[in-house]
Design goal:
Blueprint lengths: L1 H46 L3 H14 L6 H14 L3 H14 L4 H16 L3 H13 L4 H17 L3
Length: 161
Amino acid sequence: MKYIIVLITILSGLLASEDKSSMKEVFKENRISQGNLYFEQASKYFSEKNYKACIEKNRDFLLLYPNHQLRMKVMKLLSEAYWEDDQSLKSIETDIEIYRNYPTIEEGLNSYLNAARKYIKMGRVKKGKKILETIQNQMYSKKLAKDAEIEIEQIKILEIE
């Protein structure tokens, strides 16, 4: 009789732990799908040129789902929405934040390159050129280093410093 009670106790403990792990998995899947919905809504707002709503939805996403797999895409969309909404400095800050989070991959460096281009468009050529020189001297993407070099040469040719 004691063995049966011990066996039932052990089995119920195993089932309870299995339920907890499956519940964690369900919650994880729900967070992922909810984050995907936020991103889809933000993208829709952007395509409808409703940039303020897009910005708000992206900022909510970043607060609610800090480790979501779409985080970089959301940050890129946020940067574009800021730029289109004439919030240039916030757009640049977002591009630089992307670079800080992903400095060794091409998307991160590309965002840094975009920040440099935006600075130049705003007339802050020295800041833009400084970023371009940083990109030119990095070792992770030769393609982007070459792009930065070309842009530096264009600045020199146009003598817009």
